[in-house]
Design brief:
35% strand, 18% helix, twelve-stranded mixed β-sheet
């Protein structure tokens, strides 16, 4: 069973936000290059390490997410993010959550805004968005907080998540494929928390060690139970184009107000993230203040228990 790095809920409202505000029924708990035969052969380890190193230069990203996440089921999402200052905007369709299943989520100035048809409009007093703060996206497993509106697997920075593969011991080339008109080389591997810890301890320089620490942190945020299978597609400019993460997960219960933290079997994870544009301008704006409702006021209306 894995051990999560996520901390206890930072405030009371975390436990009720999802149930109060959303109608969904879930439980609260880059380049267009081509691969040339004339290019020098590189080992899978070297190719993946180079792509991980190049990920450090990503300052903004437009990406697509498809797949299945624990407790929410199937989803499709498209998002844009920028690192300085850190902002993110995501439109998400939760296919298994009935008719009212669309969410738009924005993170601006450590405030989260949520709108869309999955928001319980009868609680919004005519407004279109609710806001919650402090909210954190794209940091570490302990720091992230989307008040359980987003699955924890979607709270991480995809550029950092893509580097998890560097901790594998069975990395291998799986062929060449074209993704969105971009020719790529496909690599596959399995990763465990113990393997990532060993790779972190074996790092011989500070930069590599920091990347391994980030990879281990992202692995823990995925709530993977033991083994993560990961596929990575890299273009001929040594940039990540797409990655897929699959594995059984564990769920946590308790951990607040004196309730012991308990680990149980979770649902499978299967997510594919495709990089659409890298280092292009990204602007994310806060909704008008007059069109937002504060989540604290909504939580006060929640029935006890």
């Amino acid at each position: 069973m894995g051990i999560s790095a996520r901390g206890s809920a930072p405030c009371r409202v975390t436990n009720v936000a999802f149930a109060v505000v959303l109608l969904t029924g879930g439980a609260v708990a880059c380049g267009n290059g081509s691969v040339s035969e004339d290019q020098p052969r590189v080992t899978p380890e070297a190719a993946v390490a180079k792509a991980a190193k190049n990920s450090e230069d990503i300052t903004s990203l437009h990406y697509r997410i498809t797949g299945t996440v624990p407790e929410r089921g199937r989803l499709e999402a498209e998002a844009s993010m920028r690192t300085e200052p850190l902002v993110m905007s995501m439109q998400m369709d939760m296919a298994d959550q009935g008719e009212d299943r669309r969410l738009e989520v924005r993170f601006v100035d450590q405030v989260m805004y949520v709108g869309g048809s999955a928001v319980a409009s009868e609680k919004m007093d005519g407004r279109s968005w609710f806001r919650a703060d402090p909210a954190v996206w794209g940091r570490g497993a302990v720091d992230n907080n989307s008040y359980r509106v987003l699955p924890s697997q979607l709270e991480g920075n995809p550029a950092v998540q893509s580097t998890i593969l560097t901790g594998s011991k069975d990395l291998r080339k799986a062929g060449t494929e074209t993704i969105d008109d971009t020719r790529t080389t496909h690599y596959r591997e399995t990763v465990t928390s113990s393997g990532l810890s060993a790779a972190r301890d074996a790092a011989t320089d500070k930069a590599t060690r920091e990347r391994q620490i980030d990879s281990l942190d992202q692995f823990m945020a995925l709530h993977i139970d033991e083994t993560l299978t990961m596929d990575l597609w890299i273009d001929d400019d040594n940039h990540t184009k797409q990655f897929r993460m699959r594995g059984d997960t564990y769920a946590t219960r308790g951990g607040t107000e004196g309730i012991p933290l308990d680990f149980t079997d979770g649902d499978p994870l299967d997510l594919t993230i495709t990089f659409l544009e890298v280092n292009q301008p990204v602007t994310v704006k806060s909704p008008p203040s007059g069109d937002t409702a504060d989540i604290d006021a909504l939580a006060d209306e929640a029935p006890a228990g």
